[in-house]
Write a structure and sequence with these properties.
The complex is a heterodimer of chains A (322) and B (237). Chain A is mainly alpha-helical and 322 residues long. In chain A, 68% of the residues lie in helices and 7% in strands. The mean pLDDT of chain A is 92. Chain A is globular and about 65 Å long. With 237 residues, chain B is of the alpha/beta class. Helices cover 38% and strands 26% of the residues of chain B. In chain B, the strands form 2 sheets. In chain B, strands 6-7-8-3-9-10 form a 6-stranded mixed beta sheet, sandwiched between helices. Chain B is globular. The termini of chain B are far apart. In chain B, 46% of the residues are buried. Classes of the chains: A mainly alpha (322), B alpha/beta (237).
Chain lengths: 322, 237
């Protein structure tokens, strides 16, 4: 019981991170029909920008970034989160303009290869000494490590404490707010309707007077800022900040991509669902079976879904031609 | 001044010449039809006028302004609206959302609501399905939705690409009646059709296109009576 509750908490926090990243993959795929392999690197940059800002801002407030006991007020974290989102949003805009837009009419494989190129470029620029450097760092704590709730639940013969920490709750709450904003934007606004129209057919959308290029740019800004938020929240939970080209980031991006595929690539609600599904499979599998195989569960689930329901949980079958 | 005039338009897909110097004009208030067989270049003509394809050479003037090379969404803003082949419905959106997109470039809410009412009066079946996903509509209903949606853009020139394609004869009749009515209310129409007999009945003037070249043009009634057109397009022997 206690173990179950604790695993559930972790799965909810990790799941919201996967969901935030998966949204970027799925939105870009929905509109341009290619996998933006550079998306996971935006998450990394979001994390590193947050780290850099924290190290600049905390000393200004007279706080020592290396002392975890002195957490700053919550607005500092909010400010850093927003700045990272804006920075990565702009970067996403620039990447689309410079790397992908010239290839709008090129075969999809060319765009895919370009995305891999952009990904390598970002990783290696990030590792330059005068950018972020190639050594791991420790992210300063931006929230006090408070236990919001401590429950004693039965576990085996006795009782064990289950802790609901502020960080986990903040991760879940922040993600939930961002996803609700996105849901509203995509399904309730004129711009969102235009995005969905472009994802169905660019040509027909432009015949409605929709400026397709602007919609594509907006999609990249949106996806990249969500990725930045995920990067920020990730280092809140795991402050050991790995260098930009570290394989752990690749794995994080890959799992989020799997989440998008499992939910039904191109489907915004599917990406959120997929994010939570793989986090649950990963966390519960790791706890109840063996944590050595935590990655295996995720990819095994992917294989099963691809066999049983290739369009993903919420994906619709390939569009019929009239 | 012609509402639309196309002059010596050349368009190619890679090495394939799709249009070889075609010219046509549409006067305000007319229904003009462009007829021709499969692959003759009818859709290519419309897609080039709408800005979806770039001509290799030639000139397209709408209301006296050269529009070739402009982005499709700019051309839409000037009142040149196309209902594409296959109707161009967004199947993943509701019927209502499809209609909203018709008025995407407009912000005059009151006038949009009025135009929407009028479009739904013309197509009562679309009104019954407003909340449904557009992909669940029948072919005929989709065509009605496509035309209704185009009307919400307040077209000065409405270009229809094969509105009768794949529809039951009765529905084709309905659609052509509405086309006449829209025209009577003042909208100029350029109609591309393979169904030459229907098209020649509603149109004032007609052009015949064959493998990328205009081979005939004139008043629709005259063309309908000519031996050449009757043999090639009306199934007469």
């Amino acid at each position: 019981m206690a173990d179950f509750a604790q695993t559930l908490m972790t799965a909810l926090a990790i799941g919201s991170l996967y969901a935030l990243i998966a949204l970027g993959y799925t939105m870009v795929y929905g509109i341009l029909k290619f996998i933006n392999f550079a998306h996971s690197d935006i998450v990394v940059l979001g994390a590193w920008v947050s780290y850099t800002l924290a190290n600049k801002i905390l000393p200004m407030l007279g706080l020592n970034p290396h002392n975890p006991e002195t957490a700053p007020p919550l607005w500092v974290g909010a400010l850093i989160l927003l700045s990272a989102m804006v920075a990565c949003g702009l970067l996403g805009f620039a990447i689309e303009r410079l790397a992908y837009k010239p290839l709008r009419r090129a075969p999809r494989l060319n765009v895919l290869i370009t995305a891999i190129g952009v990904s390598l470029l970002l990783q290696n620029i990030g590792q330059l000494n005068y950018v972020f450097g190639a050594s791991p760092q420790k992210m300063p704590a931006l929230m006090p490590n408070i236990d919001l709730l401590r429950l004693s639940l039965p576990s085996g013969d006795g009782y064990r404490d289950v802790v609901i920490g502020l960080v986990d709750v903040m991760i879940f709450a922040t993600s939930a707010v961002l996803m609700l904003v996105l849901e509203y934007l995509v399904f309730r606004t004129k711009l969102g309707t235009a995005m969905r129209a472009v994802s169905f057919s660019t040509d027909n959308a432009s015949l409605m007077g929709i400026p397709v290029d602007r919609v594509v740019s907006f999609t990249f800004v949106l996806g990249s800022s969500l990725a930045a938020a995920a990067g920020f929240l990730y280092v809140m939970k795991y402050p050991g900040l790995n260098q930009p080209a570290h394989s752990i980031w690749v794995l994080l991006g890959l799992k989020a991509f799997v989440a998008a595929v499992i939910g039904g690539i191109g489907n915004v609600r599917g990406a959120v669902l997929g994010g939570f599904v793989i986090a649950f499979v990963e966390q519960f599998g790791a706890f109840y079976i063996s944590s050595n195989y935590r990655d295996v569960y995720v990819f095994a689930l992917l294989i099963i879904i691809l066999l049983v329901r290739p369009t993903g949980l919420l994906g619709s079958p390939v569009r019929e031609k009239v | 001044m012609s509402l639309l005039s196309v002059n010596d338009l050349w368009v190619s897909y890679g090495a394939i010449q799709a249009l070889r110097g075609i010219s046509l004009r549409v006067e305000p208030g007319e229904i003009v039809t462009l007829i021709g067989g499969n692959g003759a270049g009818k859709s290519t003509t419309l897609r080039t006028i709408s800005g979806l394809l770039q001509p290799r050479s030639g000139e397209i003037q709408f209301q006296g302004q050269a529009i070739q090379g402009r982005a499709p969404h700019h051309i839409v803003t000037s009142g040149l609206i196309q209902v594409p082949e296959g109707r161009g419905i967004f199947a993943n959106l509701t019927v209502d959302e499809n209609l909203q997109l018709g008025a995407f470039t407009r912000s005059d809410r009151v006038a949009i609501r009025k135009d929407r009412e009028r479009a739904l009066e013309l197509f009562p079946r679309v009104r019954e399905r407003l909340k449904q996903l557009a992909g669940t509509l029948s072919g005929g209903e989709q065509q009605m939705l496509a035309i209704a949606r185009a009307l919400l853009a307040r077209p000065k020139l409405l270009m229809l690409d094969e509105p009768s394609l794949g529809l039951a004869p009765q529905i084709v009749q309905t659609i052509f009646q509405v086309i006449r009515e829209i025209n009577r209310e003042g909208t100029t129409i350029l109609l591309v059709e393979q169904n030459a007999s229907m098209a020649l009945q509603v149109a004032h003037r007609a052009y015949v296109i064959e493998v990328g070249e205009m081979i005939m043009d004139g008043p629709a009634a005259e063309l309908a009576a000519s031996d050449e057109v009757r043999k090639a397009y009306l199934g007469a022997h």
